[in-house]
Description:
By secondary structure, the protein is of the alpha+beta class. The protein has a single domain (7-15, 31-93), classed as Pemi-like Protein 1, Chain: D, CATH 2.10.260. It has 3 helices and 2 strands, in the order ααββα. The protein has helices at 7-12, 41-47, 74-93; strands at 55-62, 65-73. A two-stranded antiparallel ribbon has the order 1-2. β1 and β2 form a beta hairpin. The radius of gyration is 17 Å and the shape is elongated.
Amino acid sequence: xxxxxxxxxxxxxxxxxxxxxxxxxxxxxxxxxxxxxxxxxxxxxxxxxxxxxxxxxxxxxxxxxxxxxxxxxxxxxxxxxxxxxxxxxxxxxxxxxx
Length: 98
């Protein structure tokens, strides 16, 4: 069963093993006194971010400190989890163990 995605998700393609991501610094944001950050309009437009879009927040740590914060679109995370669960279910059905 294929996970549900919206049309924008299909058009973007996304990061996958057959379509690896590249990383680049596109801007710098500042945290205000209320703990909020604003992504500049140009970045939101380029990333196709609209009001109401949802993201998972992933921390990477080194030596006990958070060094990276990654945002992953919920739709892509859903797809990855669905694929993982499907693989596990197939192994269970086929009688495979670890």
